[in-house]
Specification:
Elements (H helix, E strand, L loop, with lengths): L3 E8 L2 E8 L2 E7 L4 H12 L4 E7 L6 H4 L3 E7 L15 H5 E8 L14 H13 L4 E6 L7 H13 L4 E4 H4 L4 H30 L6 E5 L5 E2 L1 H6 L7 H14 L4 E7 L2 E8 L2 E2 L1 E2 L14 E2 L2 E4 L2 H13 L4 E6 L8 H15 L6 E3 L5 H7 L4 E9 L3 H21 L8 E9 L7 E9 L7
Parallel strand pairs: 1-4, 4-9, 5-6, 5-7, 7-8, 11-17, 17-18
Antiparallel strand pairs: 1-2, 2-3, 9-10, 11-12, 12-13, 12-16, 14-15, 19-21, 20-21
Helix pairs in contact: 4-5, 9-12, 10-11
Length: 450
């Protein structure tokens, strides 16, 4: 092999890895979290083959319930809400993460009009109290920040200058129309900043032991890959990456870019779709602790029940889908156990009920690790804009698309391979005429593509 990629899935004190390149797939597995053991596993997997990149699925290492640190949450609004995250949230996760909550006057509407002057003194008092209590991160969520982030940026500048040890997470960097979903993502992101720094640094160092030409990347929840710098800033993007990587791996092993995919586990099937080589994603799905966040993640629908029942349900779904049906064994590798065999049996049962054009994938390595190795640079933008005419809308949409393409380039895309996968301007009829929600997805081919 002239060059290859490695994908690694970390979790539960072990690692599963796959080397993909030149039509060959190798697998490796270790039951130790020791860095030297992991580096030795990767060197053994490479067997002298030049490895261009190592892409890590670290979503299991970024569980906010176990790895999250307490944060201070600051909500910037014209008027304080009746209840905040600390009381009444349906998920116990967020109140557990928020040690201090503050409501600060300020914010904009969705079109950038200031609704109230930012109370910078209250921001300062909250940051000072948070640092005094030993809180390491501050989550800032301002009304209208996706349209005008000025108040978030102003507050962040003050906090970083006065309290340099206090990490800051800003909601406009996450994006998303809904204030509560954006706030939830920002709080979880802030809680994971310290842990992400440790995990990213560790993975980068281990990858570097394969040689100076080997780069390190990370799987995002939308099925693409992002840089170490971006994951350090936005660890929330790395959540729910395993399912997205498994969908990518299934489609690649099946040799198709568009498919309806059934991921077979011991407990049932999870169904998703792949279009143009990327998993279908959504931003309104439950994340950690059932919390809905303004972060893209693969749309996977679980099917629970007996082998026969789930097989029949998937066959019915595949019959009405115009793309190739793919059944793939998820979570299994050649060194698997009884649960892995149950997943294989379920996949074979489902495949037997599908038409001959369907594809059964029994991966020679961990499916999510294969998918991680095959991930490509990606970017996702979700924002709100106002355009009085179609010409203004086209101009602003083109500017947003260019921002997405820039993010793809920063994730190692080969020059000229960047492309806009989808760009939708959705009219917001509940607001004034000319209001749009703009969702842009971009991708590219990796510079290290073998």
């Amino acid at each position: 092999m002239a060059g290859a990629r490695i994908g690694v899935r970390l979790g539960a004190g072990q690692a599963r890895a796959a080397l993909v390149g030149g039509g060959d797939i190798r697998h490796a597995r270790c039951h130790s979290g020791d860095d030297r053991v992991l580096a030795r596993m990767l060197r053994g997997l490479a067997q002298g083959t030049p490895v261009r990149s190592v892409t890590w699925d670290v979503s299991a290492e970024l569980d906010p319930a176990s790895a999250g640190s307490p944060v201070a949450s600051v909500r910037v609004m014209p008027r304080p809400p009746a209840r905040g995250l600390g009381s009444g949230h349906p998920s116990p996760l967020l109140p557990a993460l928020v040690r201090r909550q503050a409501d600060v006057v300020g914010g904009h509407d969705l079109f950038g009009v200031e609704l109230a002057t930012l109370d910078i003194y209250e921001v300062f008092r909250t940051a000072a109290a948070a640092q005094a209590e030993g809180i390491g991160a501050l989550a800032l969520t301002a009304t209208g920040a996706v349209g005008c982030p000025h108040h978030e940026l102003t507050a962040a500048e003050l906090v970083r200058e006065a309290f340099p040890r206090l990490r800051v997470s800003l909601s406009h960097q996450v994006g998303g129309l809904g204030l509560l979903d954006r706030e939830a993502a920002t709080v979880i992101n802030a809680a994971l900043l310290s842990r992400a720094e440790q995990v990213v640094e560790r993975c980068v160092q281990i990858s570097g032991r394969l040689g100076a030409s080997t780069s390190a990347w990370f799987v995002a929840g939308d099925g693409g890959r992002i840089s170490a710098e971006r994951l350090r800033l936005l660890p929330v993007l790395g959540l729910s990456a395993t399912g997205a990587a498994a969908l990518t791996g299934a489609a690649r092993l099946a040799g198709v870019d568009d498919a309806v995919v059934g991921l077979a586990g011991a407990d049932g099937l999870s169904v998703g779709h792949v279009r143009d080589g990327l998993p279908n994603v959504a931003t309104d799905r439950p994340g950690p602790g059932g919390v809905r966040m303004a972060v893209p993640q693969a749309s996977l629908t679980p099917m629970r029940g007996s082998y026969a029942a789930t097989a029949s349900a998937f066959a019915l779904l595949a019959e009405h889908d115009q793309h190739t049906a793919v059944i793939a064994v998820a979570g299994a590798d050649p060194d698997g156990d009884a649960r892995d065999q149950a997943a294989t049996d379920r996949a074979r049962t489902a495949a037997a009920r599908l038409p001959s054009t369907s594809v059964l994938v029994e991966p020679p390595a961990e499916l999510a690790a294969i998918g991680a190795a095959g991930t490509e640079p990606s970017a996702w933008l979700d924002t709100v804009l106002y355009a009085e005419t179609s010409e203004v809308l086209a101009r602003k949409q083109a500017a947003a698309e260019q921002r997405a393409l820039t993010l793809v380039a920063e994730s190692g895309a080969r020059l000229g391979s960047e492309r806009v996968v989808s760009s939708r301007a959705l009219s917001l009829s509940f607001l004034r005429s000319g209001s749009y929600r703009l969702v842009v997805r971009a991708g590219g081919r990796a510079e290290d593509d073998a």
